[in-house]
Amino acid sequence: MDLLSSVAQTIAKGERLSDEAALALFESSDLIEIGRLADQVNRVRNGDRVFYNVNRHINPTNICALSCKFCAYSRKPGEDGAYAYSIDEMVVKAGEAVEQGATEVHMVGGLHPRWKFEHYKDMVQAVKTAYPQIHIKAFTAVELDWLARKARKTIAEVLVELQGVGLGSLPGGGAEIFHPEIRDAICDTKVSAEQWIDTHRTAHKLGMHSNCTMLYGHIEKYHHRVDHMRRLRQLQDETGGFNAFIPLSFQPFQNEMGIDRYTFGYDDLKTLAIARLYLDNFRHVKAYWVMLGQDIAQLALQFGANDLDGTVIEEKISRMAGGRAGMAMGRSYIEQIITKAKRTPVERDTLYNPVSRPDASPRSERISPNAEQSQAVLLREAMNKADCGHKLQLDELLNLAHHGSLHELGRLANQVPERQNDGGEASCMPILSLNLNNITSVAAAIDTLSTAGKACAAKYQVEPVGITIDLATPASPQASPAEHDLGLLLELVFACRHSFPALDLSLLGVKGVWRMAQNEHVTVTELLTCLKQAGLSRIDSSPHESETDLTQKEIIQLHRQMHAAGLCSTAKVELSAPMHGSGEPQWEAFLKRIMAFAEMAPVGGPLLALSIEASPGSFVTTSEYLRAVALARLAAHGIEAIIAPLARMPTLSPASGLGTALSQHPAEKIASLCLHYGASDLGAIDVEKLSPIAVIDQIRAAGLRPLVQATRELGGRQESQPFAVNPDLRHVPRLKV
Ligand code: V47
Ligand code: SF4
Fold it and tell me: In whole angstroms, what is the distance from residue 410 CA to residue 407 CA?
């Protein structure tokens, strides 16, 4: 029996996962199946409810006597950036939180060498006295140990006194990784695993609840994670006092461990899912969006997590360590992303009691049990049909879009027979890109390409496999292809083809071609024939082209004309969704577009791929995007590749700095996941903007083999020196149409 079936059987029998099974799950690359099982277990325990709370983090000081190697937050007294809030300032911040509707303040900070236990007590008391309605969740086991030692009291005495002035529960920080091999290496002066566990045991015995965390994605190995979770599971068996388990993904700024990369989205989701499966005595697994980013946090709701934490406001610990998720999320935004993950948002207090508010938006009506049953039958029929490799009709695909689980969609998508790379591989296309608007001379453009190609080869030991020429560009929004010079374009294509014969050469701008033909008073076919003769291999949609100014029929017609002229093409299909609120994407229009492309495309024909994107201005969330990729794969019969273009992926987290190692773009977390949900290609990677190695690493992290590929027509790379410019081609004659 394979691993996942045996895990499924263990769970079905109500038995506990062994450490060996948990380790094997970490080593498995079957993300869909792990996610599906975790989702199933979570649904049995929590239904489709997802919790969040309205809270505020107040980190009283970053001055700390310890120097944990992973911590970018702490400062020594007098050091640049060191701060310490007064008790009055803490009360003001708590007051702001209350005004914004918070039910909880979360207070953790450094171990201030001069603050006495009384100061901490006064701080709790002042906040609680000013705002008795607020729950104070404060002080990690590390801080409590520090306070106990300073006050020469036991942990129990410290806890009782703090409880007496208003401490409500303990947060889960300071756990890091318990195993001494790692703990000694990253935070040897911190409380030991045993002390951490014992402090929480004491709190639980005093009737106080707490959370627990695990800091992963640095130097630990999978077996250290399993060991960590085993110790937590044991204490939970003993006391039942943990509210939630929270895996904290390592944020890599300014650490002393030499780690300069974020965790992979693939690892984040697997870790959350395995936690849900292994920690069978925990009701709540929290996807802490501040460290995961909103995108992975939303996806985590399908991977066993049932809590997104809260509105947070002014979190400093991960922010200073490179956290890029933003400082706060509003209540209604959190509700929207939960709803758009097809779950029901429930505001909770710290102890997971539902909070009701007079201004809460009404919940959508549940459909009747009969309707639900017939829907489930139809869904099963559609899935059986897809399982047997049959083509699905629009209504069946729509049923899957609205009601199918993400994992089922992914599983079905990965079985589509014409799927390129059959699941074990994934491709991307490192390219050099030119913007026609910026070309002043062909010779200069060729030189630039040559320099950029050589630089890429030297820097990454990866050579670009293609050149794209962008016709429609935002560089000068007023400039339309009307102003472009067709002669210049043909000259450029010709020069590129002959200077770099081994490279794939494509034009970005399906509509751009149509407009150019109009403006130059030639037919589209004439234009395409010239482009083919000049050496073009393919035409792709430009990211700057909107889908709206040509009809679907006209776009299909354009692709037919390209193919007739001997050119390959790829098409983009955009998913639209209302810009505000939690409205569903327009699945029907999306699926119809895909099916229209599938109808025109003979299997293995010149329509090489569909690129799945979001319409500009649409609010397409990450789990909707993944769903769209899987649905596209199911609907696009006959088309070999579904591209999830890393460079154009819709993201929820603030997005910038694509490809810079220490400022991770959220798309880099999501892209590799799409490869498990029906996509086989991450699209063109402009090597001047994004490291091809970072993308290749993403593919590897997803357990797949990376292929760096050019279009089929070229049959992959050829030998030659692609970036050595042929001097005869620097001054090609101008071509006339
Ligand atoms: O203990 C420090 C971690 C923790 C980094 O209980 C880092 O509800 C990632 O415990 N990268 C504090 N993590 C945060 C914490 C927490 C957060 C949210 C909710 C709850 C809860 C608890 O942050 C520390 C440490 O493990 N941490 N530096 C870093 N570079
Ligand atoms: Fe201090 Fe906590 Fe940072 Fe360690 S993790 S240095 S204890 S603030």
Answer: 5
